């Protein structure tokens, strides 16, 4: 749900009484009652700005976006001065995938109220979705400078920065600032746990115990624990819907009596629960993403704390002892830029193969059927920086008659397509193929339409890269400036495919050209890539490597 703003009423007319009732009902989630009250207000005062603006928000909150957009536009006719209406208009347009309108309205809201933090947050949110990460970061930084504990700008500023070529030192500075603003300032309770540690009680804290890209990574660990080594506890920071989500059902089954819903708990209650459970090692799986409970970790409710997998970037929190990385994603000469001690695993990520889909392990090279090279790029649209798209354009220029398929739900938006066109002005439009979102199995099959995958940068494909390798399609990546830009490089290194890693945009172009001229090599790679991937350290023995890490951490602590 977008952060729409409901305007309170302060008047004393009869219509204002109906507006007050509407605000009360709307704030309580009673949208039908709120709509009825606002309509009564408008019957008495057809030009009532607050009733009109709040009614537009009711429509947006109940999924009636066309009525919402029409109604909020009407509100700005009654009173064009308040920035809040223009801001809400922008958020409604964002939800309706009208990005150009959303940007225009958000900027208009700041023309009306330049110092409004609400309007600044809305613009930053829209910029991030539009693919303008650098400007979004600038706005988040401005907001945090004014309000260090802002609940949206702080974590979003950390997250969106991973879509830029930021360096680890900059990342640490921002995360340290978040820590300074949110850390626990009460009296710390000692961890007096002196059990044998067999099995170790390991608590996992996440809002993503559901079908989610993060779960497809950390699930590889949780689903494969040896119960004689690790007794897992799952602390869900967001509500779940097991009746609708088979992944949630899997996590519930693994946790059994150790499932904990802490979505409604404050940090005091959550800390008490974790301590009562006697957790030995508490693991953050969310970082600065949705469902984040990092402030809880600053209380040190478990003697050992770690972070990894779900948002593997580090946290800036000294109370978190370890960050699960690897030497590729986090080189030795950059580890001073992490608050945690980096603990090396075989790869910074792992993967849960979707065996239930029964998808073919090999596929024919599309080049032999099409007569031209098809490059594919299937990551989230927000990951494609202007520099990335310009590099893709150079590749298409160097490989005549080639095509580039881009697939994401974002291409429902004309704005997204137009942005790609503008970034590639020398490329004929018919060479750019835009595909929409499909079911997950069909999406995975779509990877096989490409001869070669072009990984985005500065933030790489993440789970998408893992899926593409599982589907037997070669992936070319650019080694980035931070872990989010090095995930695919980490995987390819563990897989023994370092020749698919470039270290500059120029080398990226050259490698793409060379690989595209070797259809025989690309075809041969497709025959064995899945088996190589499944038997690589990315998957085989990964959970056991994590368990050995836990045992080493416990041994070190208990001495």
Identify the overall geometry.
globular
Tally of separate helices: 23
Low-confidence stretches: none
| Helix content bin | 40-55%
How would you characterize the largest beta sheet?
Answer: 7 strands, parallel
Q: How large, in whole angstroms, is the Cα Rg? A: 25 Å
Distance between the termini: 48 Å
Task: Work out the strand percent.
Answer: 5-15%
Number of E-state strands: 13
Pairing-aware structural class of the strands and helices? alpha/beta
Average of per-residue pLDDT values: 96
Strand order, main sheet: write it out. Answer: 3-2-1-4-5-6-7
Q: Mind explaining what this structure looks like?
A:
The protein is an alpha/beta fold. It contains 23 helices and 13 strands. It has helices at residues 14-27, 31-44, 49-61, 65-78, 83-95, 99-112, 117-130, 133-146, 153-161, 168-182, 215-222, 246-255, 267-277, 294-297, 366-370, 386-398, 414-423, 440-446, 463-470, 487-495, 505-516, 519-534, 542-558; strands at 200-206, 230-236, 259-261, 281-284, 304-307, 322-325, 341-344, 374-377, 403-407, 432-435, 452-454, 475-478, 501-502. A seven-stranded parallel sheet has the order 3-2-1-4-5-6-7, with helices on one face. A six-stranded parallel sheet has the order 10-9-8-11-12-13, sandwiched between helices. Strand 2, helix 12 (246-255) and strand 3 form a beta-alpha-beta unit. It is globular, with a radius of gyration of 25 Å. The model has no long low-confidence stretch (mean pLDDT 96).
């Amino acid at each position: 749900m977008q952060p729409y703003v409901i305007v309170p009423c302060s008047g004393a007319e009869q219509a204002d009484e109906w507006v007050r009732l509407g605000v009360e009902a709307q704030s309580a989630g009673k949208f039908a009652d709120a709509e009825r009250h606002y309509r009564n207000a408008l019957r008495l005062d057809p030009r009532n700005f607050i009733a009109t603006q709040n009614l537009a928000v009711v429509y947006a909150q109940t999924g009636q976006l066309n009525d919402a957009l029409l109604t909020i536009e009407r509100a700005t006719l009654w009173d064009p001065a308040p920035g809040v209406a223009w801001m809400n208009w922008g958020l409604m347009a964002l939800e309706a995938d009208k990005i150009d309108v959303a940007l225009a309205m958000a900027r208009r809201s700041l023309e009306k109220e330049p110092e409004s933090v609400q309007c600044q947050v809305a613009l930053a949110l829209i910029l991030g979705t539009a693919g303008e990460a650098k400007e979004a970061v600038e706005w988040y930084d401005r907001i945090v400078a004014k309000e260090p504990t802002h609940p949206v700008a702080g974590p979003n500023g950390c997250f969106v920065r991973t879509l830029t070529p930021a360096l680890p030192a900059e990342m640490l500075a921002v995360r340290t600032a978040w820590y300074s603003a949110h850390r626990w300032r009460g009296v710390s309770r000692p961890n007096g746990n002196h059990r044998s540690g067999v099995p170790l009680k390991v608590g996992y804290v996440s809002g993503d115990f559901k079908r989610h890209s993060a779960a497809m990574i950390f699930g590889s660990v949780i689903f494969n624990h040896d119960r004689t080594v690790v007794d897992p506890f799952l602390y869900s920071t967001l509500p779940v819907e097991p009746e609708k989500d088979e992944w949630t059902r899997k996590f519930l089954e693994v946790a059994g009596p150790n499932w904990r819903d802490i979505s409604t708990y404050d940090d005091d209650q959550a800390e008490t629960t974790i301590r009562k459970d006697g957790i030995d090692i508490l693991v953050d799986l969310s970082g600065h993403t949705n469902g984040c409970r990092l402030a809880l970790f600053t209380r040190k409710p478990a003697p050992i704390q770690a972070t990894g997998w779900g948002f593997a970037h580090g946290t800036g929190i000294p109370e978190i002892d370890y960050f699960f990385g690897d030497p590729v994603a986090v080189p030795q000469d950059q580890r001073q830029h992490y608050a945690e001690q980096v603990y090396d695993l075989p790869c910074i990520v792992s993967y849960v193969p979707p065996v239930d889909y029964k998808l073919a392990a090999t596929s024919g090279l599309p080049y032999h059927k099409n007569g031209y090279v098809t490059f594919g790029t299937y990551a989230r649209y927000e990951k494609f920086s202007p520099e990335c798209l310009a590099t893709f354009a150079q590749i298409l220029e160097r490989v005549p008659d080639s095509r580039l398929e881009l697939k994401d739900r974002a291409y429902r938006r004309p704005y997204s397509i137009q942005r790609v066109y503008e970034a590639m002005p020398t490329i004929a439009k018919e060479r750019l193929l835009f595909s929409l979102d499909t079911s997950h199995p069909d999406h995975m099959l779509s990877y096989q339409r490409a001869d070669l995958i072009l990984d985005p940068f500065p933030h790489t494909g993440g789970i998408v890269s893992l899926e593409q390798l599982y589907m037997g399609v070669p992936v070319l990546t650019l080694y980035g400036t931070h872990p989010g830009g090095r995930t695919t490089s980490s995987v390819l290194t563990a897989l023994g495919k370092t020749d698919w890693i470039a270290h500059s945009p120029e080398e990226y172009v050259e490698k793409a050209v060379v690989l595209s001229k070797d259809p025989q090599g690309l075809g041969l790679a497709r025959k064995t890539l899945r088996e190589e991937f499944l038997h690589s350290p990315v998957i085989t023995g990964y959970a056991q490597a994590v368990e050995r890490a836990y045992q080493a951490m416990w041994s070190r602590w208990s001495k």
